[in-house]
Amino acid sequence: MRELYILLLLLLNFNLAFTQKLIPEGDFLKPLEIPLILSGTFGELRSNHFHSGLDLKTQKREGLNVLSSSGGYVSRIKISHWGYGKALYVTHLNGYTTVYGHLKKFSPKIEAYIKKLQYEKESFTIEVFPKAHELTVDKGEIIAFSGNTGGSGGPHLHYEIRDSHSKPINPMFFGIEIQDTKKPEIRAGVVYSFGDSSNVNQSNKITDLRIIKRKDGTLMANLIEAFGTLGFGINVIDKQDGALNNNGIFSLKMTVNGKIVYEHQLDTYAFSETRYLNTLIDYSSFFKKRQRIQKCFVEPANKLSIYSNLINNGYVQIKDGMSYTIKITASDFKGNTQSLVIPIKGKKNDVLVKKEMEKTSHFFKKDEFNKITQSNVMVAFPKQTFYNDLYFNFDYKDSVVSLHDQSVAIHKNFTLTFDISKYPKDIRNQLFIGRKNYKGILYYNNTRHKEDKIYTLNRILGDYVVALDTVNPKIIPINFKNDQLLNQYRFLTFKVTDDLSGIKSYRGEIDGKWILLEYDAKKGRLTFDFNDIRLEGTKHSLKVTAIDNVNNTNTYIATFYKKE
Q: Is residue 255 located within the same domain as residue 390?
């Protein structure tokens, strides 16, 4: 009994001493009844964040039973147009919370609970936190059905496990069994030189390694001559059995002459630190080549908590006349590994090829507030917006503001403000700030109006412009028409589009009463389920209104006939 009490105390202090042994492996069932195959791993590198769970394939189908991994209660329900779409959070007796995302719908009792609240609030999007006694669930109970809602790129179940401090933990520690006999694949290696005298083969630019595969399966880079402070990085992916997806690795380790100088492992992390992923990867390489190089060194701005066994933060000092063997090993959760060996001959050569640095009139220090004002434009960057000091490119020409380029990652929102006093007053409310992508396509940015100015907050550099949207959204019925008899119909569907600023809100009414329209933002589709309401009489009026982000409005009105 005393030992059990001590173990419970250790579990409560999980974040102070995270080890695999403290996790209640036998407490959790897998959330699907089919064999589990991954389309995404925990800690996988995503845009600006680590993946916080497992993406479980659902055989390209929707509607599979989703089971509660353990007993407990539904502690949170969130329905959103993007993100996890329809998501359930179940808090368990052992203090952990499981998360189930991209769901098609919930089990009947949960569906009834949330639809009642949606009708009360007259909103499809909703977030509620039920009390412990309201929606209890048993271990293995069907709590939902898998889907493709939110930001999902295809049918699958997003599955997370979080501790009592809301930190996500690798679900593989909890006994989730995935068939995996494949080792990671190291696809590229690079070397960085730091300081004017540091170099690789007489160059202090980033050096790509030439790699060959040896008979034992390890990879060998070409011998390089080098001197000074170096950093190393690799591009690596992992695959599991039964899937072609390029997934993320579990851990990465680097040794110098057999001694560990760098290691990171994806056990857990805090959501507050996840954007620092942009310091783990070579962000510029990712933007330019769509290649995520993982650095085996920790830069000063990097605040990730995933590291261990660091010596000199992973930077390697190469001395003249010495020989070195660098070995970088990537591992998946099952212990499959692949290594890259890099032989180095220390030689103090002259630097013949030097890094090119474009100097501009704007030099930003990362630990200072930085601002640029020109004509009717102002852009302001808070302290620690940037990870490094930099010369910043700024241009304002032909109504387009160019803010450096997207190859530089930023950590905090900057504020971009335009003075719109030169525009006629009758169109100012239809003005918005848009960002142009590399193809010139304009994207709406959440724009706020204040007197004769508009401003937006963002964390993406690039080209911005003030745009005018005067066109109303379009509402097109898909599966019915006006004055139709709909006795055999279960659903009404509409296509809702907007040509520029995008849909902000929508509302549906039948006979003057609000109805629940489910919005699939990816397809631009609204769906109404007749089972949600009870109709009185035979003849009914239908009204659907859509409003875009600058308040252009369109309303579709129809009559239909349906008997209960």
A: no
